[in-house]
Write a structure and sequence with these properties.
Elements: H1 3-16, H2 18-24, H3 29-50, H4 66-81, H5 89-101, H6 106-119, H7 127-148, H8 154-174, H9 176-181, H10 189-195, H11 208-230, H12 238-261, H13 274-291
Length: about 300
């Protein structure tokens, strides 16, 4: 491993996501390196599309050249798979990860297709549209992370995808107003119409009570995905299961808090406290151990099903 690549990736995760940085420390060293490098690539692509720096400055970011930026990301991703030397640290890290863990090419390309939905100002008419976005920007990240942890079975990959879906549904609920301020609306248009909220007025204070009901609906929608994801812990190495169980608890709590705050959910950004993170760290360890003997239940047919590889 190139130390410069690892250092760059570690900085990206420490600034971009303190929660994931903490959870990643539970991995064994080899898995942690790969997970951090994969995160650095995901963070880099997101920043390039939004004109951000490690997840910051989104409101001020210039997205006018999004199509060209996306095309460059796709090109670099293809070149990484072709084995060409990568000068960009994020892509050098990405190349090492995909080679080490044999990550299928369609996963990162599907992830970039999620960014294309942002670049093209995709309009989410139905819940299926929103779930497709969740799959692309987060579900496939779950698939890639699962591969990093050594998962191969399709059933385990399904549960990893479910966790990504749950995370993104939680993110959407937490960030509805913040996203709306930059013209991004991920709530289904038919939900908004049903609630009597014009898409261009989502962030206005007088719509907050109705918006809170839709956010609660998203949080409730995420719950079966969280439950399904917990079934995948049993098939991961213990330290990986501990890390994922910790992240599972932290993100799920964010959704719980969004729902509990109601119309005040967007007065300040919802996050978890240090005490709560410690609680989920300890609880995650217990859940990871318990998962070794956890009876496997069938994945609900009602959940959105990821596309299968040809």
């Amino acid at each position: 491993m190139n130390d410069q690549v690892i250092d760059h990736s570690t900085q990206a995760i420490n600034v971009g996501s303190k929660s994931f940085a903490s959870a990643a420390k539970l991995f064994d060293e080899r898995t942690r390196q790969s997970a951090v490098m994969l995160y650095a690539w995901c963070r880099h692509c997101d920043d390039v599309i939004d004109g951000q720096t490690l997840g910051h400055g989104q409101v001020e970011g210039d997205r006018s050249t999004g199509e060209a930026r996306l095309a460059e990301l796709v090109d670099l991703t293809e070149r990484a798979y072709a084995g060409e030397p990568m000068r960009d640290p994020a892509f050098a890290a990405f190349q090492q990860v995909i080679q080490r863990h044999q990550i299928p090419r369609e996963y990162p390309l599907e992830h970039l297709a999620g960014f294309r939905m942002d670049v093209q100002d995709y309009r989410y008419q139905t819940l299926d549209d929103t779930l497709l976005y969740c799959y692309r920007v987060a579900g496939v990240v779950g698939l890639m992370m699962a591969k990093v942890m050594g998962a191969e079975a399709e059933a385990t990959l399904d549960r990893a995808c479910d966790l990504g879906m749950a995370f993104q549904l939680t993110n959407i609920a937490r960030d509805i107003v913040e996203d709306a301020e930059i013209g991004r609306v991920y709530l289904p248009a038919d939900w908004l119409a049903e609630a009597g909220i014009p898409a261009e007025a989502i962030g206005l204070p007088y719509n907050r009570p109705a918006l809170a009901l839709l956010a609660a609906r998203l949080v409730d929608l995420a719950e079966p995905y969280y439950r399904s994801a917990s079934q995948g812990l049993r098939d991961l190495p213990l330290r990986s299961a501990w890390s994922i169980a910790t992240a599972h608890g932290v993100y799920r709590q964010i959704g719980v808090e969004v729902k509990a705050r109601g119309a005040a959910a967007w007065d300040t950004r919802v996050s978890t406290t240090s005490a709560q993170k410690l609680q989920f760290l300890l609880g995650g360890g217990m859940l990871a151990l318990a998962s070794r003997k956890m009876p496997l239940t069938p994945r609900p047919d009602s959940l959105w099903t990821r596309p299968r590889r040809a």
